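Hey, resending since the last one bounced:
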Amino acid sequence: MKNFYRCAVLPCLFLALAPYQAQGKLLTAYISDSPSSSVPKWIAKEAGLFKKYGLDIDLVFIDGSTRGIQALLAGDLSFTEAVGTSAINGKMAGGNIAIINGIVNTLPYYIVGTPAIKSPEDLKGRTAAVHIPGTAADFALRLALKRVGIPYNQIKAITIGGGPARIMALINGQVEFTVASDAEKIKGESLGQKTIIDMAEFKVPFQFTCTVTTTKMIREQPDNVRRMVEAIAAGIHYFKTNKEDTLRIMSKYTRGQNRTLLEGAYSAYSQLLVADTYPTMEGLRNTLEVQASWDAKVAKAKAEDFVDLRFVDQLKSSGFIEKLYGRK
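The structure tokens again:
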């Protein structure tokens, strides 16, 4: 897998990894260039929080958590951002990995489509821009279709990739609907598209974003894993308490996306980002239950098999979160 992944997916990036590792740097990936749950990692880099907490980190973009998990399993990353489904799939495939924190613990997604789609049931037979299997966007779309009684094989799915590319495919008329985050929803609506299903209304616990590392990293460098968990928690605090600086960082990483879209995403994720960074065990159980319907191996798995909670437990026991937010 390692050689194939390097050659086929990100050749230029991974040819450069050896010097990073030789210099003692750690490499971590974020998985979305949309102004959403990747922002705490952007903040940790740009606001110097990685350095503050004793980490020498290089941050790279890998489009989609499935690819991020593949790179982690190949030994090319120290950490990756991921969706719970991808972490589960990586572990079930034999990967020695673990979720070490939770960043967003629900599904902040919308089904957005053309005005010609009059109701959720009208999605049947339509063309959709989708992400690769195992991503949060893929899971959200499948769940939304299930809620309205439409089998996935009764839509025409075209794999486009990340949120910005999917919403542009809709706006440009290449597809009739897609699954979108807050920022893409706002952009779509501003250009004549309509929201058909609001996934947030379902209030489904789901491990939308988390940080994943290897059990080897946990065993051999537990201090660096602890520092990563602290830096991400501090990045979430920064997000919630430094709006203008956060918007500036969001603009940089989204290549100058307009202020209205960034404001909308900021408002949504101010509520969605998890302050204590505990993963959602209920969300992982929900995912396992859904996956068990097509994967018999998952039926025997437990949510606890996919997490290592010692580091978020340390945040709580040490008073780290209370100190960040000025609580007694």
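The CA atoms of residues 146 and 152 lie 8 Å apart.

Sorry for the duplicate.
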